[in-house]
From TrEMBL:
<dbReference type="InterPro" id="IPR050595">
    <property type="entry name" value="Bact_response_regulator"/>
</dbReference>
<keyword id="KW-0175">Coiled coil</keyword>
<keyword id="KW-0597">Phosphoprotein</keyword>
<dbReference type="Pfam" id="PF00072">
    <property type="entry name" value="Response_reg"/>
</dbReference>
<dbReference type="InterPro" id="IPR011006">
    <property type="entry name" value="CheY-like_superfamily"/>
</dbReference>
<dbReference type="InterPro" id="IPR001789">
    <property type="entry name" value="Sig_transdc_resp-reg_receiver"/>
</dbReference>
<protein>
    <submittedName>
        <fullName>Response regulator</fullName>
    </submittedName>
</protein>
<feature type="coiled-coil region">
    <location>
        <begin position="115"/>
        <end position="153"/>
    </location>
</feature>
<feature type="modified residue" description="4-aspartylphosphate">
    <location>
        <position position="47"/>
    </location>
</feature>
<dbReference type="GO" id="GO:0000160">
    <property type="term" value="P:phosphorelay signal transduction system"/>
</dbReference>
<feature type="domain" description="Response regulatory">
    <location>
        <begin position="1"/>
        <end position="113"/>
    </location>
</feature>
């Protein structure tokens, strides 16, 4: 509360103390600014016509010093233009007149505190939203980096599969062919025809049945006129992969 008349400040104290506020007072705009420099407040109620600094000018400076405060003018003098300008600038929340009605003044002060709580909550939520967005951006950047690394790794693994001397076959847990190297293509046909196909439909029957089995195992199968020792390895023990890898080790030359 800022007013150069001590009796006004005393009357305001008597009226507002019943509402449980912590009340601070100053006798001039300069004293009010000095108080605000060291004390955070929620609502400012200032007289308009005071010696030296007017209430409007005090509230303009108070807005700069404490932008989150809710600022009201209480005055018996209606300097309409200066008060209108201050309201348009956001320096003043409301203009109240003297003499005041006690209950109406209390209601206006309560409304100012409600406005302050709402503004504080909006700022809190905005801060949380900015922090959440920043965290999401970091997570997306990390995920994008992980995707790039995984693509490079998959590229290396794909090249490795192609240069290995044995036919290799990857089947997912649903029985779809998801990997086939050049050696397998030479043995069974085009990899393009194999990839994405159901193992029962695109693989020789004996190889499809063995691929459908569970766990690590091996067998000997006759494929393309030659015998192959087929190793089946269950994936997922050391990674999130699900499916099986089959390695075909020729035990004799394939005639095609």
């Amino acid at each position: 509360m800022v007013d150069d008349e001590a009796n006004i400040v005393a009357a305001l104290r008597r009226l507002l103390r019943r509402d449980g506020y912590t009340l601070l007072s100053a006798g001039s705009g300069e004293e009010g600014l000095a108080l605000l420099a060291t004390q955070a407040v929620d609502v400012i109620l200032s007289d308009q016509r005071m010696p030296g600094m007017s209430g409007v000018e005090f509230l303009r400076q108070a807005k700069i010093l404490r932008p989150d405060t809710v600022r009201l003018v209480l005055s018996g003098y209606t300097e309409l233009q200066s008060i209108t300008n201050a309201i348009n600038e956001g320096a003043i929340f409301k203009f109240l007149t003297k003499p005041w009605d006690d209950e109406q003044l209390r209601a206006n002060i309560a409304e100012a505190f409600s406005f302050k709580r709402l503004a504080d909550e909006n700022r809190r939520l905005s801060t949380q939203l900015r922090e959440a967005n920043a965290q999401l951006e970091r997570m997306l950047a990390d995920k994008q980096g992980q995707i790039v690394r995984e693509r490079r790794t998959m590229g290396v693994l794909h090249e490795l599969l192609q240069v290995l001397p044995w036919p290799l076959l990857g089947v997912d847990e649903a029985g779809m062919v998801v990997a086939a190297n050049a050696q397998l293509e030479n043995l069974l046909g085009s990899a393009a025809a194999l990839l994405g196909g159901d193992s029962d439909a695109v693989l020789p029957a004996a190889l499809a049945r063995f691929a459908a089995g569970g766990g690590d195992d091996e067998t000997v199968l006759a494929l393309c006129g030659a015998d192959y020792r087929v190793l089946r390895r269950q994936l997922g023990e050391r990674s999130g992969a699900a499916g099986k890898l089959l390695i075909l080790l020729p035990e004799g030359k394939c005639d095609g």
